[in-house]
């Protein structure tokens, strides 16, 4: 027993031993300590009359909470609630202490640790197109084309959109073309910033209005770091006496499973919660004892995590007559700013301002999370502007209030705003002023097997007009897995005759085919009945169709369409007569898709709204490609494949199977991790290099296969050489047109052989049988 003590004394401070030895009959022991199931290393203790004591310094190092005064050495048996198990044979001490006696750090678990790799930058062009044409009676016809052209390089994107229309009537053909938006944008993912120059929408909060401008915008963009959690996570605080397993269940579904050390812990719910419900945390210790903690969840979609800010600054001129004129901008510069910041887990402050010649606006508000009681939001804004008469000015204010509460079955939403005085914003100078008053209220309740019912109310009072008030009641119920029925009614509270009632029935044959029927009655159209059926193609593509019949309201008509979704886009064609008269009868056809110029080729695909990838296999055709282990296609004759969609600013794993490649190629990697920028493309390159290769069977002068494990050097190349396998076969892939093989057998004998490499007709791998001579 003395040897371990001598070893321990060389590795621990020596001052503890003399203090212990000064007590008659005491012995200093250096013991391996575990506290509540956690190993805490080697520490000195004093053994006297069969009782163990520890110094205050050691106990504090072990995380015990002790008063500052008192004796320097404390007998372990005198500490209330402490259980000490001393194993003299193994020189181990197991301590089990109540958590109230300890000062353990709070362990945080359940946080996402995924980070995106650096951007996969590429250069290319993309064209999205949407074509549509109609042909009616009497020579009426129309053609329209919507296009988007993008040029990108890394995180920089230059894009423009336009709309072209051509119509024909009794006056002949008329053409119209209008530019929609032209914008250059640059993303800075490390700083979560996006710079836009050109046409854009100003930043806004729920109680302000966005304005379309031409100018410059700099904004915080959380989408550049999609793995970052921006909203406060519901946190679950608990404690474990021993190292334990912890599981989180939300509405009965397990969301997290992991381990926590002894002591307090904080479990952050994953994934992000945007609803209300019930959560249970189950803690199971090493002895199999389980404890369950229950918590309530709440909506946090408008909240920011503490210390996190979101902001936007815009400078430009207002865009007018959007969609009608290509270059119609105001003359007065406009400056707007929006700012939001999370001050705590339950409160986020908001601010918004606008300035232009003759007008200034400023407002502030906040969003409060009231725990299980719901979410409350409020804001106050004021404006001052030059009056229409010279030398005067006018002002006004706007107050906004909102409340949202959701339970497992019941949800309540209230929103309202009201302006006082002559309240205006920048958008007023080029359109209507904010409404004098608006309000909405909704209540929804899940009645279980009886269905879901909702009641809503809407109030709107535009400037200079009478107020409008509407109320609606809706009921919905699912019958089995394939059928649902819905009933609804809306009523104009200011005009009794303005009432609408709707009854609908929907039935699904399978995941693609469904049939629905409905009857609607309103004051102006009477009773209208509609029956429709449709077959939608799956995400991988295929044929689809849609048919609708309608009667009532003085008219009878219908519509029939057939469509096809393929890898290169969508096409559709149909006929329609949904109104009365000959003018409502027409045939139509359309097509949509995208063309990409990247990687040295032009590739076609469905419409591309965000990021994509181009797989390059160095000209090797027919290579199967997988995205996140899911097959997405094969490379074309040029060794290229367009993969749509992929996640922008996130890690996307592309992979190929080397077993699907020809035997005469060498591959650098079988997987490629790409992180494309938004609305851009990224190149997935696997480094496939064609080589001269052959499969050779080597025999000796007697025709016997060379021994297993013989080494083959090709044309005097350095290295260990290729290894001969069973029956003398060896694979060689570093060949020239003329080749000399030097073979060394396991017993040290050397022989040589020669052959010429040639590419077999029809592809494949050259096979040769050679005699290896001295």
Count the E strands: 54
What percent of residues adopt helix (DSSP H or I)?
under 10%
- The secondary-structure class comes to mainly beta
CATH architectural designation of the domain at 2-103 = Roll
- The portion of residues forming beta strands comes to over 45%
The CATH topology annotation of the domain at 2-103 reads as Ubiquitin-like (UB roll)
> Shape from CA axes?
extended
Low-confidence stretches: 1-21, 271-275
Over all CA atoms, what is the radius of gyration? Answer: 38 Å
Global mean pLDDT:
86
N-end to C-end Cα span: 70 Å
Task: Give the number of helices.
Answer: 3
Please write the CATH class name of the domain at 2-103.
Answer: Alpha Beta
What do we call the CATH homologous superfamily of the domain at 2-103? PapC, N-terminal domain
Biggest sheet architecture: 24 strands, antiparallel, barrel
